[in-house]
Amino acid sequence: MISISTRSRLFLSFLICLFLSVSEARSVSNDSHEENRITDDTAEYLRSYGAKMKSYMNFSVEPCDDFYEYACGNWKKPRRSNHKENNMHSIDYSLAVITEQLMTRTQLAEALNVSAELLVTQRFYNACLTAVVSPLPAADPAYLSLIRSVGGFPAVDGAAWNASKFSWFNMSAHLTNYGVKGLINENIRHTYPFDPYFERPYLGYDYLANMVDIANSSSRAYKRNENRMRGYLQAFNLTEEKISAVVAGVFDFWREALSIEDKFWGEELMCIMLSNMHNVPIFSQWRSYFEIAWNGQNFDEEKYYYCPYYYAELDKVCAKHQEAVANYLAMLLLYRMESSVKDEKYHKEHCLMQVQTTMVHLISKLYMAEHFSEETHSEVSGMVKELRKTLRQELENADWLDTETRREALLKEANITAHIGSYKDEQLTDTMIRQIRNLSVVEDSYAQTMINLRELETSLQRFNGLHYKERASDSKPLDFLVGMQVNGFYYNLDNSIYVMAGILQAPAYHRSWPASLKFGTLGYLVGHELTHGFDTVGSTYDGTGEMRSWWSFKSEDEFQERMQCYVDHFSNYLIPEINHKINGDVTKDENIADAGGLREALAAYRSHMKQLQKNGENNETLTPQNEQMPGLDLSPEQLFFLGFAQLYCANYERDNYWKELQNDHIIEKYRVLGAVTNNEDFAEVYNCPLGSAMHPKSKKCRLW
């Protein structure tokens, strides 16, 4: 199981250029004039970045009253999509700028033997730049032709649509080939044989439909979904009467489909019990899904089927609403082709993101060759070692562990493997890059090009599964090969941690930063992932990646009690924007990892500084001033906590709060508040009086 702790987007281009110039300068010359220039450039960068950090802060709020508001109260960024925006997302946008630069590196591509693939990428990018991407030209013949080939669009085709030949299941299966999660919600396992597994289908477009919201035609959810459908249908010049009837039909279908969940509360375990209780056989059409979507791949299929009872009931509902189901799925395909570009000024950025996310192995190979230095690798490796040392100390000092359980825990820590930058498998990486040649860029039809792109994306995601017989049983997921991603994660199956090269940019990392800030940002992120090896899931795997019980009953009971503290603490947070509380049980492992990561990172920073002093490095790099950020009147350890909090500065719309409730990572504000209120050092560093909001009198939660 992979635990993803951060995801990415929005940085100012001049900072990227500055970063590149500083890095380049360091590699050119060592003479005194050059060193002075580097020093000057670094000082200017630090002043600039310090001013940026300061601009995010709300000094009218005391840090002990609301540390998130203090750190992020003035963080305001333009919304570029319908999704939430946070400070970590800025890295995605900075990487997009770098992607544009990399597409011009023809000599580098020749040296790496990827010229043909870069040429295809350039052709797609140029086609995207000249295309109309917003609003989506829904009535484009290419889209309509595809819809008709997989099931039809009765709202548009009228009497020409043949209900007797329509299969809602087959249409859903075809749509998965373009990454559409229709009435088959396909996911791909990260473990051999990298086969598909399924979750309950989610209904809706911009806003996931639920029974409460769509029961009220004036609700935001109803309006957003209605407007989305009306936009598509108007492109076909349908009458208002026809459009209203089609929209109403889709909502009627959704209501009946959602009512199925009431019979088993949406829980898969209950669904399985009902399937067994009612003797419901495996849904008969799954074989056709594997034929349509997986080239008839011969997996051990029975373990992949989602709840027979659910699909038996859904089949009855779909039979009653055939036209509505076909219309819904047709518009869902159009939705998949949408760009989400809210303003034409983001057009180029959108095209770069398409390249960055689809031609990912190619762009990553170029990125690693040009931007990932040995110096960065060495520094990050050193930080990981320091974090592991503090984790080991936490395990050694956990007096609630009995001797045998502690021995197993320490053995597990000792066997952790760290990968900095990416996982390396050059042969497989090159194989993935060669797949880009399969993308057909149609000069006079960007719609057809987009269809081809979505099909390529899906085939790349399925590649391991489609070729699993050629792979070893211990093969890694394909995304482990991609260094240019904003990610860090812990992988239970081989007890390893990954710090990907793409995350090594502000606000997570910069080589020029003081160590106090580096440990508060990247150090915390690394500690977070290491702690996942000892959360409620990680603790069920041993040091070899085998799932087995290595806990004594006594230690397990204490573990559960400490874990419950986190569940209870976070369940008390009320999100006022939607008047809903956080689910502390669903989010417990991420909250445990946040708390552990923050504690380990501060201990690692303190250990790092003591080690420098012990080694006699009493030079100017150890002065308190050089462990601070220019323009911020903060001690090094106060800067440490500020850097952590500003990773999670965020903008939300009301819809985003509801979507985040389904996530195992809680809303950013409460990640920050929950971590610092359960951290003894924070209260000391910021001089928070006992009883203040950030230093409550209640017992602090602590696992590690």
UniProtKB/TrEMBL annotation:
UniProt keyword Hydrolase present: yes
SUPFAM superfamilies xref list: Metalloproteases ('zincins'), catalytic domain
Keywords noted in UniProt: Hydrolase, Metal-binding, Metalloprotease, Protease, Signal, Zinc
Coiled-coil spans in chain: none
Peptidase M13 N-terminal domain sequence ranges: 63-423
Record domain Peptidase M13 C-terminal: where: 487-700
Bilayer topology annotation: Single-pass type II membrane protein
Keyword Signal part of the UniProt annotation: yes
Main location: membrane
Cofactor(s) it depends on: Zn(2+)
Transmembrane regions listed in the UniProt entry: none
Signal sequence range: 1-25
Full protein name: Membrane metallo-endopeptidase-like 1
Organism field: Drosophila rhopaloa
Phylogenetic lineage: Eukaryota, Metazoa, Ecdysozoa, Arthropoda, Hexapoda
